[in-house]
Design a protein that fits this description.
It contains 15 helices and 22 strands. It is α/β, with parallel strands linked by helices. The protein has a domain at 5-42 and 213-298: FAD/NAD(P)-binding domain, CATH 3.50.50.
Length: 525
């Protein structure tokens, strides 16, 4: 059970962890240290809307699960504000994500160390990835699954999808015809990614049920939900050193305080961590001054250097004569079919046992013959920005690594194949209905099946910001990703290069199954 407010308010703990459930569980392994977790959302433990795999996406814009952030209007997107969901529940976004579970490229992890973070490298990342996970082989042999997973006995169970749609093979053949290899392990190519689903229980595995629930009996691990942190209390010593002494938070209608004996660990995510720092008096002097907050520590990097990947999704309607050959999530909109699929799911079969798991990563050169021209344009644009003193020294180092990554042929572009009508996450907010909360997305036709290919730009050069708008801790931060602003004006930008899914859709292996292109929608991710 999670704690009551009486067990927390006014008390002192060795560690106060803001939202970081996994870290809190690890810290509590030392029985001599008391650990408190403050979670803004509800517990939602044993919640079928979280645990049931085929209900992914149903949580979006639901305040019981989702912060439902919106960006400020983006000039480069015609003034659109982009939905940016984040988990607001015990377990955070691991409770509402789409299950894909694969490692990033080695070069991207090593880049953290090159930027001045000793120990943030591939070797240590791989070591602790293996320690933290437990691979469960699929019960049936599949041409898409790799059994080359040495990690076992970690807390987080994962496996491959229990069921497939039949579209995976023609999709992979289409990509192979344009020079992208089919692999069983994620380097450069297309493959089926593992997912955070336990095939034995047929449920989602995430931070709450893999790290907290097995350890909730620990007397030194205390978790309080619906605790919205408003600030970290700070003390400045005679030597100018700033120390955290406790945390203020809202629970119900009242503000409470807890004291900390050792450390406050702030792990509230990309959007809320900057907000809490700034509300506490740590951040850019001008931002804090505009919000009427006393500056404790003028720290210029807070809320800066936000890098957000974006995608463009294209949905294709399957031809009527082949619709019976493939299984897609679209069939779940029919109540009668849904009932039959529920019976199949009990045996790990059918649409409800599928996942969005067909992933493809590839270098810019695989996307377009104009890759060299794009690289030169980007290099020229960045050099001009450096000459004009537009970039900090830190950002210049990042851009140098990004350009090297493109030139080296790292997988900077991505395609996801979805077995459904899914031009944007909101298009399948409620599987089993035709409801859409994105007015720019047309609804799927009843009785039809679709395949969607979404192209991602994973390493944009544009950088955004996340800052408080006022001293009100309940007001959402101003999120400004600056989508495409750095790429804007480049004659052939990578955002166009990564949109190759229509080309793949016209390849013979898929063309025979596709009737027409149905919709295109672009959003942030």
């Amino acid at each position: 059970m999670t704690a009551s407010i009486e067990q927390v308010s006014g008390k002192a703990f060795d560690f106060v962890v803001i939202a970081g459930l996994v870290l809190a569980a690890r810290l509590s392994e030392d029985q001599d240290k008391s650990v408190l977790v403050l979670e803004a959302g509800p517990a939602n433990l044993n919640d079928p809307l979280i645990l049931t795999p085929y209900l992914f996406g149903i949580h979006y814009n639901n305040p019981n699960y989702d912060w439902a952030f919106q960006t400020i209007p983006q000039e480069t997107l015609g003034g659109r504000s982009i939905y940016s969901g984040r988990g607001k529940t015990l377990g955070g976004s691991s409770a509402i994500n789409f299950f894909q579970f694969h490692r990033p490229s080695k070069s991207h992890i090593d880049a953290f160390e090159k930027l001045g973070n000793p120990g943030w490298n591939w070797d240590l990342f791989s070591k602790y990835f293996d320690i933290s996970t437990n691979f469960i082989p699929p019960s049936e042999e599949s041409e898409f699954a790799s059994h080359d997973h040495s990690n076992e006995n970690g807390p987080l169970n994962y496996s491959y999808p229990m069921s497939y749609s039949g579209l995976e093979r023609p999709y992979h053949q289409a990509l192979k015809s344009i020079g992208i290899d089919v692999l069983k392990d994620p380097t450069i190519g297309t493959w089926i990614t593992p997912v955070t689903i336990d095939p034995t229980t047929k449920t989602r595995t995430y931070a709450a049920n893999m790290y907290y629930e097995p350890n909730m009996h620990r007397s030194n691990l205390v978790v309080l939900t619906k605790a919205h942190v408003t600030k970290v209390n700070l003390k400045t010593g005679s030597n100018g050193e700033v120390t955290a002494t406790g945390v203020n938070f809202i629970h119900g209608e009242d503000t409470h305080t807890v004291e900390v004996r050792k450390e406050v660990v702030l792990s509230a995510g990309t959007f809320m961590s900057p907000q809490i720092l700034e509300l506490s008096g740590i951040g850019r002097k001008d931002v804090l001054g505009n919000a009427g907050i006393e500056v404790i520590l003028d720290l210029q990097g807070v809320g800066e250097n936000v890098q957000e990947h974006v995608y463009s999704g294209t949905s294709f309607e399957l031809k009527g004569e082949v619709q019976d050959q493939f299984t897609t999530f679209d069939c779940l909109r029919d109540p009668a079919v849904r009932e039959k699929q529920t019976e199949l799911f009990a045996h790990g079969k059918g649409a409800m046992a599928m996942s969005f798991a067909s992933m493809t990563f590839f270098p810019l050169a695989k996307a377009t013959p104009a890759a060299d021209d794009m690289y030169r344009d980007l290099e020229k644009s960045i050099s001009a920005g450096i000459a004009a003193n537009r970039y900090s020294q830190g950002l210049q180092k990042q851009y140098k690594l990004q350009l090297e990554s493109i030139q080296r042929g790292d997988p900077v572009c991505e395609i996801l194949m979805a077995q459904s009508y899914a031009a944007s996450p909101n298009a399948y907010k409620k599987i089993g209905t035709a409801e859409s909360i994105d007015s720019g997305t047309t609804l799927p036709e009843p009785g039809k099946k679709y395949i969607t290919m979404s192209s991602f730009l994973n390493n944009p050069f544009s950088r955004g910001t996340v800052h408080i708008q006022s001293s009100d801790p309940l007001q959402a931060p101003a999120i400004d990703p600056h989508y495409f602003e750095e790429e804007h004006g480049v004659s052939a930008s990578p955002r166009r290069a990564c949109q190759i899914e229509p080309s793949a859709g016209q390849r013979r292996s898929l063309r025979g199954n596709i009737n027409r292109r149905r919709s295109i929608s672009r959003t942030g991710c």
